[in-house]
Amino acid sequence: MTVREIAAWLGGEAVGPDTVLTSHIARVAKIEEAQAGDCSFLANPKYQKHLATTQATAVLVARSLDVAGVERTTPIAYIKVDDPYVSFLHLLKRLTPVVDPFPVAVDPTAHVASTARLGVDVALGPGVHIGDGAVIGDRTRLAANVVVGPHAVIGNDCLLYPNVSVYHQCRIGDRVILHSGCVIGSDGFGFAPKQDGTYEKIPQLGIVAIEDDVEIGANTTIDRATMGETRIERGAKLDNLVQIAHNCVVGAHTVIAAQTGVSGSTKIGAHCMIGGQVGIAGHLEIADRTIIMAQSGIPKSITEPGKAYFGYPAKEARHAQRLEAAIRMLPDTMRELQEARRAIEELKKAMNRS
Fold first, then answer.
1. Of 88, 36, 37, nearest to 62 (Cα)?
2. Which of 79, 218, 222, 270 could be 252's S-S partner, Cβ–Cβ 3.0 to 4.6 Å?
3. Which residues are catalytically annotated?
């Protein structure tokens, strides 16, 4: 596609010399790494300095950006669009060949129990195991070594990457993506202390229920409930290495970044954004549209929706940032205080001598 064709396809406006507007674009690349024949994008203002030096043939920019003042030694084209990042993603998918890692048929080494039910156009990779009474929906594809336990149910159009384990009786909705090593339905961490100092295992008799359009990252674990269900609601997105404990609820369209741990029976609201390495204590409630910044610790419920929190114990972000700023000033403040004390002592001595 030429620069001009890309602009028309994206509903944008192409700006630049005709010789560049008719150039063909073969690839997409980051603005600081792009070469001739590449198209890049500018969505974050801190990368605007690269407009003067990038080797890209074209750059996707916001319609409001004034490019007339950019001084360059080589010609370049700008494609003005409403959202450069989203437009870049569309172009990325258009120009980048897609490698399909999933099987297109049932591999002969896959084991399907006689009582299991497979939908239309199901594909199973090498070593897949489908347990008794399990149900696999239409057009769902399971890569190598996926294990689906007895009486588990997986919906239509799902993608399970290699080595995913779905334990017995768990339920997964439609269009769910589970990445490699993901474990759905392992036992919750429940042990009752006994008088002799040992522990009695608490039976974990519930399930995990995952609703439609959920995506769960590699090596993320979601524990089954002690009773009832652990639930991941519609459209939620969980990163790699996330731990969701027994009887938790993750609300619709909530996103959780890597290495976050959520303790048992906590209920997270809808449209929340939770950063990496966040720790959330058990039996809490997190209100809708809450933002929790990376490495924060949440020891108590958050009841007001739409607020941002940071730190440990987490505080409202603006308050926490003021505290952090005050802490950074402490060494200078202590030094000034000591100097003031010395001055006062000298003043006292001078007064006594007089």
1. 88
2. 270
3. 246
